[in-house]
Specification:
mainly alpha; two-stranded antiparallel ribbon; 11 helices; 2 strands; rod-shaped
Length: 399
């Protein structure tokens, strides 16, 4: 049993009260009875009657609805065809959606791949360009530091600065060439090329900074060496001037050539004038030092020559004096020999006086031998090797 709609009852009641046909309301026997009966229902009729009333109203509503004709066989075939068509359309739509999803996925992957490839190529070319820029910067640095690269170890205060610069230049020149980027390369190859070029660029940057710092150190060391050389030159010139002045005093009258002392004095005067100037040039200081040293050496050589000449003269004088002394001694010996062997011309006596004279003659010969005169058996010989022509005592006695 279908329950009676309360809304329909209310609508029908309102339509009856207004003497109009309410939409959706059906004039049934129940509604007419409801509004035409004036009797009050009893409690027994209230429960059962209400149910009966609803049944009657339901029947009346069913009777008021139009009867639908039954579907024919053709209609059923048409409905089946439409169902199959809807199924086919549904499958086609599903396939289309799946194909579209697959195509979208493939297209998205292709776009992503192209995006990655483009990004890798851009990174590679950027790294290559950065390498080229840094390489040009390094070339300029090498060119500007060419003067410092030519500095020798003897031109700097610290030799290690020259070594550091040389090492930095050699390391910069040993950096590898960059990898060229090409669209024919794979994405992974492009990425590796980009990383390689970035690493090489970093090496160039480091080398560039190192060369600049090393060149700066060499330049500072050259300046320090020049300052040291200048101070050393000034102090050396002062010392040499003082020593040269002392040499002038000590060499007075003891030089072979006095012109050397004149030259030394001129060098001393020039050095003193130069030292009075404010910051004279290093070349002038070195020239004054050289001139002073040369003049001092000349004076020292002249003093040595003078000493040699003086010693030779003294030796010659001593030799001459010695020779004169020898000659004087020889003359004295000859004179003594002549006096010793000179006797009177009278005939000697044959008594004992003759024997006495012979003894005296022999004593005279012994005395001459003690003074350096040798008397060989065949005659008398003096100390200079000459034989004496004096007759022997026996010969004189015979005569």
């Amino acid at each position: 049993m279908t329950p009676i709609s309360s809304a329909a009852v209310v609508a029908g009641t309102a339509a009856i009260a207004a003497n109009v046909a309410a939409p959706g309301a059906v004039k049934t026997t129940a509604t007419r009875t409801l509004h035409t009966t004036s009797e009050t229902p009893t409690p027994a009729d209230d429960a059962v009657g209400s149910l009966s009333k609803e049944l009657r109203e339901e029947d009346a509503r069913a009777a008021s609805q139009p009867i639908q004709p039954e579907e024919s066989y053709g209609d059923k075939r048409n409905n089946g065809g439409r169902a199959r068509s809807r199924a086919i359309v549904t499958v086609f739509v599903i396939i289309t959606i799946a194909a579209a999803a697959a195509g979208l996925y493939y297209l998205t992957g292709l776009i992503r791949t192209n995006r990655d490839r483009s990004s890798a190529y851009a990174s590679c070319t950027q790294a290559y360009s950065a390498y080229k820029e840094e390489s040009e910067t390094l070339a300029k640095t090498l060119k500007t530091s060419k003067a410092q690269q030519k500095v020798g170890a003897d031109q700097v205060a610290d030799v290690m600065t020259v070594e550091h610069l040389k090492t930095a230049v050699d390391k910069a020149k040993s950096v590898s060439k960059p990898v060229t980027c090409s669209t024919s390369m794979s994405t992974e190859a492009m990425r590796k090329a980009a990383e390689t070029n970035k690493t090489l660029t970093t090496e160039l940057t480091t080398a560039n900074s190192t060369i600049k710092a090393a060149a700066k150190e060499v330049k500072a060391s050259v300046t320090a060496k020049q300052n040291n050389d200048y101070d050393t030159a000034v102090n050396a010139l002062k010392t040499s001037t003082s020593e040269a002045t002392t040499l002038m005093t000590n060499s007075e009258g003891v030089v072979a050539d006095d012109q050397t002392r004149t030259t030394l004095q001129s060098a001393i005067d020039a050095a003193n004038e130069l030292l009075k100037k404010d910051k004279p040039a290093l070349a002038d200081l070195q020239k004054a030092q050289s001139d002073l040293q040369s003049a001092s050496d000349a004076v020292n050589d002249s003093m040595e020559t003078y000493k040699t000449q003086r010693a030779a003269a003294d030796a010659a004088a001593a030799a001459s004096a010695a020779q004169a002394q020898v000659q004087a001694q020889q003359q004295a010996q000859q004179q003594q020999s002549q006096r010793r062997y000179s006797y009177p011309s009278s005939t000697p006596r044959t008594d004992g006086n003759t024997t006495q004279n012979d003894s005296q003659g022999q004593q005279g010969d012994n005395s001459d031998n003690s003074q350096g005169t040798q008397t060989p058996s065949d005659g008398n010989t003096t100390s200079d090797g000459q034989q004496s022509e004096s007759p022997s005592p026996s010969a004189s006695a015979t005569e």
